[in-house]
Design a protein that fits this description.
The protein is α/β, with parallel strands linked by helices. Helices cover 40% and strands 15% of the residues. Strand 5, helix 7 and strand 6 form a beta-alpha-beta unit. Helix 3 runs parallel beside helix 10 and helix 4 crosses helix 9. The longest helix has 24 residues. The radius of gyration is 20 Å and the shape is globular. 44% of the residues are buried. The structure holds pyridoxal-5'-phosphate. Pyridoxal-5'-phosphate binds next to helix 4.
């Protein structure tokens, strides 16, 4: 079976399990903000066309200043990247030939990036509630040079607490281990959660990765960045391909980061929508990961071994989930679904109700 490597390819996914001729397809396979991109972006995007005939500023001054202001860090602590994906590969390159620990199941690109730069990889699994195994992690730290953590984690939506992160960083200072925290989904968290990057001053072994893709629904634009110490940032900048981020996108970064009410409205909507979805899934006897963000893992509590059938059923009914065959340790046992608009979530619940009624 040839499964698509990532979400966001509904036709390919349906075809891969032999389903065709469905009318409307609702795509729950990519974790993208259903309200985006922000309206203002369209106008600025057209305006930014003027930038196509010149090379981008190699230092991306305006974009870096906007990020520094947004995250309240020094300009020298940031590196603009071609999406969060480039940030992952730049970090892996820093540790070429060394030893990495990846907490699984998680985003598959950490492993791919580590393999590309010949890192020796060890894996550690989340616990059965999809939470970070902090004590095991602490005991593994002396054995590795870098730990890749995704928080909120894709595909579970679960978080590492600041307290636990600080324990890891402290240990990492003793063992000379760098901790990488990929925060691609951080913008979806309610404001009460503290910002991880504030720990960089006390812990120079911390590298934070960000993506603007998910919150602003711009997967094709490719915008992300790294926050870390000036020393790590300088090393990564040396390795980065010149003009890696195109000038049109770079000129839109200040516009995106100024969308504070768009972010706020999305967060408020998500908190309510997620609570409602969890309530209804519980009522229907489905099991889900304790996600804090805009996606979750799902399986039928009454038929936990029938995920392949459930997959086929919902796809045939126009609901496209993300398969989990390439998430280590899950082997397709769960489906990952994005939290979509209220209408789409309602549709999903109707399809799951139909599944429950036929069993
Ligand atoms: C955890 C995580 N990090 C990074 C990325 C890559 O983001 P980008 O599209 O900005 O490269 C993704 C994309 O799915 C992701 O899930």
């Amino acid at each position: 079976m040839q499964w698509p490597a990532h979400g966001g390819q509904p036709k390919k996914l349906a075809a891969s399990i032999g389903v065709s001729g469905i009318g409307k397809m609702y795509d729950y396979s990519a974790n993208i903000n259903p309200f985006g991109p922000p309206e203002e972006l369209r106008e600025h995007y057209l305006h930014a066309f003027a930038a196509v005939s010149s090379y981008p500023d190699p230092d991306y001054e305006a974009a870096h200043e906007a990020i520094a202001e947004y995250d309240q860090v020094d300009r020298g602590q940031i590196l603009l990247t071609n999406g969060g994906a480039e940030a992952i590969f730049l970090v892996a390159q820093l540790f070429t030939g060394k030893r990495a620990l990846i907490i699984q199941p998680t985003f598959s690109e950490y492993e791919r990036a580590c393999l590309a730069f010949r890192l020796d990889i060890q894996h550690l699994m989340l616990d059965q509630n999809f939470l970070f195994p902090v004590d095991d992690l602490l005991s593994k730290m002396p054995l590795v040079d870098v730990v890749f953590l995704c928080s909120p984690n894709n595909p579970t939506g679960t978080l590492l607490s600041m307290n636990d992160l600080e324990r890891l960083l402290k240990k990492g200072l003793e063992t000379n281990t760098t901790v990488v925290v990929d925060e691609a989904f951080v913008h979806f968290l309610p404001c009460r959660f503290e910002a991880v990057h504030t720990l960089i001053t006390a812990y120079p072994n911390l590298i934070v990765l960000r993506s603007l893709t998910k919150m602003f629904a711009i997967p094709s634009l490719r915008a992300g960045y790294v926050i870390s110490t000036e020393s790590f940032i300088q090393q990564m900048k040396k390795q980065q391909i010149p003009w890696s981020v195109n000038g049109v996108v770079a000129s839109l970064i200040p516009v995106l980061l100024a969308q504070t009410s768009f972010i706020e409205n999305t967060r408020n909507w998500l908190e309510q929508e997620l609570a409602e979805l969890k309530r209804r899934l519980t009522k229907l006897h489905f099991e889900y990961s304790p996600s804090m963000v805009n996606f979750y893992l799902l399986r039928d509590k009454e038929r936990p071994n029938d995920t392949a059938e459930l997959f086929h059923f919902i796809v045939s009914n126009g609901v496209i989930p993300r398969h989990t065959h390439n998430f280590l340790g899950i082997h397709g046992d769960y489906l990952r679904l994005a939290v979509r608009s209220a209408v789409e979530n309602e549709y999903l619940i109707q399809v799951l109700t139909k599944w429950r009624e036929q069993t």
